[in-house]
Automatic annotation (TrEMBL):
PANTHER family, per database record: PHOSPHORIBOSYLAMINOIMIDAZOLE CARBOXYLASE (PTHR11609:SF5), PURINE BIOSYNTHESIS PROTEIN 6/7, PUR6/7 (PTHR11609)
Catalytic reaction equation(s): 5-amino-1-(5-phospho-beta-D-ribosyl)imidazole + hydrogencarbonate + ATP = 5-carboxyamino-1-(5-phospho-D-ribosyl)imidazole + ADP + phosphate + 2 H(+)
Gene Ontology terms describing biological process: 'de novo' IMP biosynthetic process
Residues that bind ATP: 116, 159, 164-170, 194-197, 202, 225, 280-281
Name of the encoding gene: purK
Molecular functions per Gene Ontology: 5-(carboxyamino)imidazole ribonucleotide synthase activity; ATP binding; metal ion binding; phosphoribosylaminoimidazole carboxylase activity
Source organism per UniProt: Ottowia testudinis
Protein name per its UniProtKB record: N5-carboxyaminoimidazole ribonucleotide synthase
Pathway membership: Purine metabolism; IMP biosynthesis via de novo pathway; 5-amino-1-(5-phospho-D-ribosyl)imidazole-4-carboxylate from 5-amino-1-(5-phospho-D-ribosyl)imidazole (N5-CAIR route): step 1/2
Amino acid sequence: MPTPLPLLPGQLIDGRPVMLGVLGGGQLGRMFVHAAQALGYETVVLDPDRHSPAGRISHHFIEADYRDADALRELAARAAAITTEFENVPAEALAELARARPVAPAAGAVAIAQDRIREKAHFARCAERSGVAPAPYAVIESEADLADVPADLLPGILKTARLGYDGKGQARVATRGELAAAWRGMGGVACVLEQLLPLALECSVIVARGRDGQVVALPVQRNLHRGGILSVTEVYEGNVPRALASQAQAATVDIANQLGYVGVLCVEYFVLQDGRLVVNEMAPRPHNSGHYTVDACDASQFDLQVRTLAGLPLPQPRQHSAAIMLNLLGDLWFDAAGAPRTVPWPDVLALPGAHLHLYGKTEARRGRKMGHLTFTGPDAASVRERALAAAALLGIEAF
Ligand code: ATP
Ligand code: MG
């Protein structure tokens, strides 16, 4: 029999603390485990990698593929409720688990976020109310679609409908010839072609929505991407113009409401050079741009994930410190000549307001997210000064 919600901190089931489950053992799962354990829950993680960052700190770890039926049954048997940290987890696995246990987010919402075509259609519907539309785009599933592409979508960015992340599965194309070559190069899979927009800045908003429909929004994050990967997130008063921040928060709440979403959802936006806000994509889980909340807010995005999963109250979170987060990619573990180097952590940690988070990955590789470093302080000027000092020590380009 499924245990009814809420799953209370300290509650025992058959003499053991309530166990919460997570599909995916990456750094997001690891920080979910931290937040769940702080409230006294036990955790179970399912991931194919035996050295996964979350698996190595969880009470229980199931090493298996996301489609392994026996492993999913074991997860459902152990966990009182289940979430995901990995957006490409098969939606069918979530649907299967939901037959036995409360699952948040639901398979249907994850399936939409996994498919850029369905995601953009959802955004376009929401835009009729919020006024925040996606970039002009066309769906490309056949040679005929290629021929029909309106000229004003070029130059554009071709993106695979499924399985893209960190800029993978994308190509910039300037002409019809390049478009056709890029699409065929991607194996002719379903894609969207988006108009290449003149960006002034990028930002994101994270919301948490409970089963009762209550929604809380975190502050707007200003994000800098480099090489298709998030590099820096800045969150403080004035990081983006106030009117845009409110518009982005309202649009995100609407996107979550219209999905009937339960859990933590992040929506990424572009601010164009003419000041317009455009919605880019969503992640049905906590997001890299929300890691600062662990150190700078009175409830982190992972606390909110635990609360929405367990059915606990969702008071409006408050950011108590200005914050800048630097992503720590594996590149930092190598010197200019490509030889392994010792990262100067003592110098970095001598800076006031530094919060270092390493994910326990034993092998550094270029572009691999090894950890992040958040600076908190009383105001934007002080956190910028310290974050820039850390960036210089680490060899991260100034911002
Ligand atoms: P993520 O790691 O966020 O999942 P992704 O691979 O899904 O990334 P997008 O967020 O779609 O990719 O795009 C990656 C980056 O490429 C964006 O953050 C932005 O800098 C740039 N970009 C994407 N689409 C456009 C566009 N239509 N016009 C201009 N720049 C764009
Ligand atoms: Mg993105």
